[in-house]
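Write out structure tokens for Ribulose-phosphate 3-epimerase.
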Amino acid sequence: MVKIAPSILSADFAKLGDEIRDVEAGGAAYIHVDVMDGHFVPNITIGPLIVDAIRPVTQLPLDVHLMIENPDQYIPAFAKAGADIITVHQEACPHLHRTIQLIRDNGVKPGVVLNPATPAELVKGILPDVDMVLVMTVNPGFGGQSFIHSAAEKIKQLAEWRKEMNLDFEIEVDGGVNTDTAKICTDFGADVLVAGSAVYNKENRKEAISSIIDATK
Ligand code: DX5
Ligand code: ZN
């Protein structure tokens, strides 16, 4: 069954603990944490301090999506704060292999992220070294944007390579995922769907998560 990773970017930060407990009770598989630095993306969100604060609130893996320049500088701090998965953007990592190894050396599962305009070919060489590939279906920076269909087609290519190369990384999709777009992602081979506004902008989060899962069937 597809895993849902609610993005706390669309949660009410004044009651973040309760917002996380709510989606955990509602069937979330991961908590997706969007870290933005105001340089790599035009928005600033949260740092290791918040990851540390939410770590005791949930049993779920914290899926930390770094949308920052020079991620190597901050990976140890996010690992120490309790991240279970750290994903870094291909576009932000001139020495991607080193960055992926740094994440693993810090005891965290590494993943690589592709912006909508970045071809899948650019991460083919790193696939044996990652536990996750995150396909962005919006340009990162904000929640609530529309799904970019052409970006989703990369999922299919990644799923093919995974099979050919006999690998088992998860394919995650992030941006504009809702009951209309979820099935496109899972039909192409996605395992994990990030959903920010489609979960947190709904009154009943359990229903919101179930309806996305049901939409993929
Ligand atoms: C976008 C973030 C996403 C965002 C998704 O930059 O990486 O995780 O929160 O939000 P929705 O699901 O509303 O597109
Ligand atoms: Zn994200």
